[in-house]
Amino acid sequence: MAWDNKELHEKFEPLLRCLEEGSSVALLTMRGSCCPVTRAHCDMFQLARSVLLGQSLLCPPGTPPFSECLGLLALNPDRSIKRKFERRSESENPIRWFDRAHLIRLATAEVPWLVLNNLEAKEAVQELEEDTRWQHLKFVHFHLNGADDVARWEKWKHASASQRYITIGRREWTEKVLEGAREYGVLDTPHFHVTAELPDISATAVRTALRCQDRDALDRMLHPSVAAWCLRNRIYSSTPAVEKAQLR
């Protein structure tokens, strides 16, 4: 199958055509399983966007403050999620890619600056940079990650002027990232920044809530349209409600 980002370009076009010549645009890219996409995924983009639009210190030297910030959310392939489920001895099958993509569209339908990305981050950024309509704009790419992922892979070691990171704080992991980035000399530079922590929303807890159809828990963790689709299609809903008490 040939992948393209037509949907992404169509969604971003109204925002980009309003910008003046020489404007800087931050591009946030993230890849995840999103099985299913939760409020936390979208909140990560929202928090990073607010940081980038409010802190000129994160603009590369010689770059004006960001006039816009766009979010590109990509999905891990089905095979990698299946392996993850098998390692964790989870009995269910993961939600397939096309359905996870549909759920991202539902969760971001009312967010004009956040969209599903079908390409690798580098390719998606390159497409925007090479689009003749946006030659008057300057795009600056940031990799968006949770602190747990950054700590496991010590991603601060890869931070540079051409490889920028925004790390979302996460309980029990934030301090590890701060220590590592500080020792490596990249903390709070234009190419590595750590934000405040966000409330944890565990994908495992979401799947448990879906299995026992705990609507109160789902309201806290999922966009209403995502929750409704999952319930309607009985995603992970075959287990008795005995697990409901574990969510509280």
Automatic annotation (TrEMBL):
Gene3D superfamilies: HUPs. It comes from Symbiodinium microadriaticum. This is Uncharacterized protein. InterPro entries: Rossmann-like_a/b/a_fold (IPR014729).
